[in-house]
Design goal:
Blueprint: E1 2-10, H1 16-26, E2 30-39, E3 42-51, H2 56-64, E4 71-74, H3 89-92, H4 114-127, H5 132-141, H6 147-166, H7 175-188, E5 192-196, E6 199-203, H8 216-227, E7 237-242, E8 250-256
Antiparallel strand pairs: 1-3, 1-4, 2-3, 5-6, 6-8, 7-8
Helix pairs in contact: 1-5, 4-5, 4-6, 5-6, 6-8
This protein binds zinc ion.
Amino acid sequence: MAELEVRVISERREGLLVELGRVVSEHDHVLVRQRLAPDTQGASLTLVLRGPDERRAALERALGTHPRVVRLELAPREAAMPPDEVVPVAAELPQAVSAPPKTLGYGAASAADVVQVEHMLPSLAKDYPRIFPWLINLEYAVAAEAREASLHLAGRRAGAWVFRRDFLFGARLALGDALRRIALPALRELVLVELHGHQLHVRGCPLCQPGGLSGGRFFCGFVEGLLADALAGGVPRASEVSCHCHGEPECVFKVGS
Ligand SMILES: [Zn+2]
């Protein structure tokens, strides 16, 4: 497993990360970091990728011949970003106005960019569980003040969809059982996760890069959407109490009802 850094020049930034993200995962690589910036020719997208060495040449070829790619540059290995360097993804994005509230109400979704979220959902369902390029794309597609609420709404819609698909006909459960029998297996399709009491610990969350903004609102919404019709009593509420983007080893989500 080696890290590979490539820089891609494209005429447009819209949808670029999603389209190239698909090529990356088709070649058994994962996206470690990305940086999207304006360029005189349109957009410049730097990708740090990780995957098996034997797939690397094919991936480079596929990226280099992709119709969206005007030019592909490979970073010399010694010049590649060291693994722990913080890449200012957030610098591309207007800063969030304020920290998310500790307790998330459903009213938060009122500020979501519903049109963008609805537009993305069919693609999210089609590519599920490889959804993170779509979510990262959503973060770029919406206004800064709508970012967190849009992620939250996308999470709720995705969670409700997964519940209907996989868990609909079970009995209603106590919160602890619902977390163990529904939230944990559903989240394991997406990320490395463990359950400790009523807290979900996510390791290496692809939406929360160190030094960037937290994408944890997606997971809050996802768990709330998953469990909305699953609990014997109360309405699920999730909040992120610790986040990888602030240097913590894990993102921790507290769930209550
Ligand atoms: Zn996080």
